[in-house]
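[step 3/7] inverse_fold.run input=structure_tokens len=269
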């Protein structure tokens, strides 16, 4: 429970740090590069990477690259209190729907109720009377699609490699491609300007949240860990409201809580 809660805190923290940057794309590139370098020595402990893992590494790296580009774009054009709950909330729903449709897995009643609760939460986060922001909603849902996709890929890929070695290779490839892309588009000056304590901490948190989740999974069922970990949605929303960084009404706060409750029902169902 403590490890899963720690993972939630770290995940919310690195997203809060990244979303507050002026140039989220350059900041993401720096953070990813820092995380890859810092965690490289740890990945050597118990290193195992079978050749059969390569298709999963390629797929996951491509999905992570799109995920980071969309996330940075989302944070640059919309409020974190809008993007984060919808992206995190839609992913478990998409994983469940994909498992039912593609793999023929049956869904329990609590999981089905959870899907409805998450959907209600997303509507509340978006706002009942908001006719605009369709672009922002599409961005947030696209991020959720990426999360759901690389989650399914990584679930099978980890069978062919040790977790940290797999993580290091996937994120290493992603970092190289993303840094090169941002360097060409933004330039060296923007990259240097993005180097700060916040981006360094965000990069460590990017990797650290996943490492804490893996540690929690060794001690507790995956469903319980997933349910606790997604409390990061409420943590981030509460921080944004209390700090005054974003104006969050009762509807959006209720939506964030509903998303977490729905995810818990899906995970525990």
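[step 3/7] decode complete -> sequence:
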């Amino acid at each position: 429970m403590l490890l899963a809660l720690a993972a939630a805190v770290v995940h919310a923290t690195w997203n809060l740090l990244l979303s507050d940057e002026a140039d989220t794309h350059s900041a993401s590139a720096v953070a990813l590069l820092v995380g890859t370098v810092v965690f490289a020595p740890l990945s050597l402990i118990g290193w195992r990477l079978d050749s059969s893992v390569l298709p999963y590494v390629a797929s996951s790296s491509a999905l992570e690259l799109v995920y980071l580009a969309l996330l940075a774009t989302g944070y640059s054009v919309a409020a974190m209190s809008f993007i984060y709950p919808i992206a995190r909330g839609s992913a478990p729903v998409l994983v469940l729907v994909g498992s039912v449709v593609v793999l023929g897995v049956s869904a329990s009643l609590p999981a089905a109720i959870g899907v409805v609760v998450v959907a209600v939460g997303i509507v509340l986060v978006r706002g009942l009377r908001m006719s605009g922001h369709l672009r922002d909603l599409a961005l947030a849902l696209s991020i959720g699609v990426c999360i759901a996709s690389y989650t399914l890929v990584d679930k099978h890929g980890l069978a062919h490699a040790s977790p940290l070695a797999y993580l290091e290779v996937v994120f290493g490839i992603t970092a190289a491609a993303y840094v090169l892309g941002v360097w060409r588009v933004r330039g060296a000056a923007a990259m240097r300007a993005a180097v700060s304590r916040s981006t360094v901490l965000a990069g460590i948190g990017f990797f650290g949240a996943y490492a804490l989740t893996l540690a929690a999974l060794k001690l507790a069922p995956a469903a319980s860990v997933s349910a606790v970990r997604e409390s990061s949605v409420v943590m981030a929303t509460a921080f944004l409201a209390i700090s005054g960084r974003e104006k969050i009404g009762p509807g959006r706060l209720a939506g964030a809580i509903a998303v977490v409750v729905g995810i818990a029902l899906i995970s525990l169902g």
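[step 4/7] annotate
Residues 2-268 form one domain.
Residues 24 and 76 are 6 Å apart (CA to CA).
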